[in-house]
């Protein structure tokens, strides 16, 4: 991840929503369907919802954004923020790649509350944090260590052995879910092995089951009656039934390559691609792609806020869009 700018400017532009429906052969222009377009200097990348607002990582800071203002609500210095953040326990939790620690920041004041030295499994920052069952979760070592943080003490309360080359974690349906990239490399590339998802019981800190997925699963989402993985090796999305722990669908989104993101909410699964797909939606009722948005705009993130707004970022063109499905 290259950080190019240190100063920040913020421009808000509004667009009318068009009530168009898409076929698979029709790519909806994102600027035509966006209700808000935000232009930011720096390197706006990973998103996390905070009620109807979002936090976004940027160069040496994280910003809290609102759809109704023309500047960040808060800007908080962080030396090298990386990965998908988490919000919970009155705080935003962000990985800092330069010292391999988790920073706890008060979500209302922006005050740095604690630095927790955990280690990070991916030195490049392509990772995610999660909150759930009274804890904060992060993959802390590429040899296969899931770290559990107690927010009451801001200290590690447990480390759990998982498969190696695991980087991303999510929480839902009473469990912790992690992806295992499966090809024995820190970054996807030449590997051909299928990856997997592991389910961890937070009551016992034990792996319950390992579930095969598509090639090189990295980012994952929990919701819309499934656990969903974006498989960077073949561009597919795997759907796991959290009630049976079975793989029930593989959707060919064609979102291959590094980067990207995935989110579940507002009745859809949202897939943010990189070089082959800008944004696609999966209908969880049919397990098929029902809309595509363009044009290709480099990599970034996608998240759904409490009011069912969908936020999409592109660090390559310094832009954030908001759409209302």
UniProtKB/TrEMBL annotation:
UniProt protein name: YncE family protein
InterPro entries named among the record's database cross-references: Haem_d1_sf (IPR011048), Host-pathogen_enzymatic-act (IPR051200), WD40/YVTN_repeat-like_dom_sf (IPR015943)
Lineage per the UniProt record: Bacteria, Pseudomonadati, Bacteroidota, Cytophagia, Cytophagales
Species assigned in the record: Spirosoma arboris
